[in-house]
Write a structure and sequence with these properties.
The complex is a heterodimer of chains A (about 270) and B (about 550). Chain A is of the alpha/beta class and about 270 residues long. Chain A has nine helices and twelve strands. In chain A, about 45% of the residues are buried. In chain B, a hairpin with a 5-residue loop joins strand 6 and strand 7. In chain B, the strands form six sheets. Chain B has a five-stranded parallel sheet with strand order 11-14-17-10-18. The longest helix of chain B has 18 residues. Chain B is elongated, with a radius of gyration of 30 Å. The interface between A and B is large, with 36 and 43 residues.
Chain lengths: ~270, ~550
Amino acid sequence: MEYKRLDKWRERAELKGLLDLAQKPEELYYRGRWRKTLFDHGVAIVGSRRMSQYGRRVIELIVPKLALEGKTIISGFMYGVDQYAHRVALASGGKTIAVLGWGIKERLEASDEQLARDIIKAGGSVLSEWEEQRAMLWTFPLRNRIVTALSKEVIVVEAALKSGSLITAAWAEKLGRKLWAVPGPINSQVSQGTNQLIATGQAEMWLDHSYQPQLSQTKDPLILKVREEAMTASELARVLKQPVAEVGAQLSLLALKGEVVEREGKYYAS
Amino acid sequence: MFGISILRAHALPRHVEIFSAGFGGHDCARKCLDACTSMFGGKMLTKIQSIANLGLETVPVTVEVDVAEKGFPGFTIVGLPSKAVGEARERVKTALVNSGFPFPNKKITVNLAPADLPKDGAAYDLPMAVGVLVAGGLVEIKNTDLTKCWFYGELSLDGSLRPTRGILLLALFAQKRRGSLILVPAESAQEAKVVPGIKVIPVERMTELMVHLTQVKPITPLLHTPIETSLEQVQPEFDLRDIAGQEQAKRALIIAAAGGHNLLMWGPPGTGKTMLARALPGILPPLTPQEALEVTRVYSIAGLLTAGEAVVQKRPFRSPHHGVSAAGLIGGGTNPLPGEVSLAHLGVLFLDEMPEFPRSVLEALRQPMEDGVIEIVRVSGHVKYPASFTLLAAINPCPCGYLGHPRRPCTCTDKMIAKYRHRISGPILDRIDLTVQVAAVEVEKLAVNNEPETGNRVNSQEAKVMVMKAREIQTKRFKGLKIYTNSQMHNREVKQLAELTPEAENLLKMAVEKYDFSARSYFRLIKVARTIADLTAVKEILPQHMAEALQYKQIA
């Protein structure tokens, strides 16, 4: 676990976003190779630690597209939305920056360490403003300010009413970053924060416009149903009034073709 | 009713009473005994036949009773008796006295031969009591050949007989010896009557037995009833039709029953996993007489047959709690009794919240899942019990249980979830062919009426018919091999007997690539697809069968 201190970060052009901060980090430590281009167009993906299936799907829709556009996914390396955003970015061949909420010298858990290595291997970076610092309640909001400052845009995927993600949103407003929020079901706790951001006009509503025209002109009742609402095989069999054996077989075929996606037993349109 | 020749208390003052001062009450008995002995001449040594059950193996035990004139009065049991056998002294003596028999105040020695075989249980009470009476010369047995009689049963202090476990095993053992007669507690005698070729004498009390043996008033033997008659009309406990929604889970149950596959159900609490599990025995084919006997043997030795129950009629359903010990699950004790796996023999073993079971306990399932038997090794030797069951496991999606629940939030972290799911070891999961989700039911979606013709609302009776047809096909396929269901196929048999059409094979290849299946999952999928094809009586595995099988692949 090798890390380096970044010399005179204030003089680096790629980090001028950080200069917007009133409380600038004193030092910056990083793992991996330093690549200037990594910071060209950073997009922060932030959200709840308690990611729902919906949040998962949202990330799977947004992140690959951003990665394809050559944007760098910046997030906070926490489990839930943060880590999933890192993972999806890597899986779709993109680059990603993880800003730690603790010192760079802290030991990571095995699975986290693996993710950190994967991020570095893919040409990304793991950053922290501390060398030795245990994770504390106060370190995470500070971490959020760096995530925001490094990014050009911030997308809040899921957030409860009192959450770190809303702190990040507040930073984005303060620093003048473009703020997006993904709308969610009104009965979901982890969407109340994002919906509020939209309702109050703090954030722009993220609607996946480029997604719509991709829909093929299908007549398959299964795909049409699944596009309306994610459902289990049993529910589909019930609404379509078909034997569950047949529905299941068709779903398997559609999943193999990539036309539907199964997550925890529910089928989603891809 | 027992004014028999035994009990005439002649007060013949023959002995000098040396110790008599403190024994007022025994005086009479001793005198009586003397009288009897003098009357019949007193047999010194008697051999009574009984048995010992070592697991499901039955060996003969001869209870040798010697009542000696010489030596200090006493009652000694030798021949490796356990504590329970040793305590028979008190039970036998008190029961005899309370039944009105005199107890010989002599040196009584009981040997349980073979002497090096450890004996356990209270079932030697009856042979010992009979032995004491005969050897002490207190009864005269008429028209009965003691070498053909098998005595087995526990005594109560009042002289009545208590239900005793393992009577069916005694009956099956006696069946192999022509003209056998078994004399056993009346309450447990029912289980013996399904065995043809033997005479079963149900005994209520010691006195009744004695009037029987002296031919004063013989007991009527139990009528033999073939097993078939008691196997009729078994109603399932839960009908599939009564379970709302969960169409796919019900379908998975039918596939599991048809192919003998183990099944894993996952979903939040309160979605009907337990109900579904309890419905499984009802769609399995009914027990054959041979199978019923096999199950009853295990239940007889475990002492779990209810009084008056002749045979186990339903396929067993066992659902041990996750606090169960390894010994409780696979069987144990110094004289090992069958555990839950054996009690579930030919039925269903349901492990609810499987990850909560200690890993060591779950690992103990590997042998029975592979071989259908469990071998328990103890200092005293080893015992084999049958343990061929369908495993039904239920797991929550995460430790709190609400991951993916439509309304309740899950409070678990990714790490907790990963850890929870890794608690079940790979070797166990490898033996589970089917995995199905039992999602939380959204009531508003249930309101949709199911058209009957979709087959989604199948009832248990219809399901059972489907299962039995599929099993018939399998029986034909595996003729001459030592397997009976698709789940038992090894890789070699899968290659030989589960033919895929080229299209189905292509489909499987695509799936292997997409989901990164292991070789094991590959064969599992073919086995499941084979069963699905059997359910529709199709000879080759078609793409739609393979596609449906993919629905039941393991969760990552």
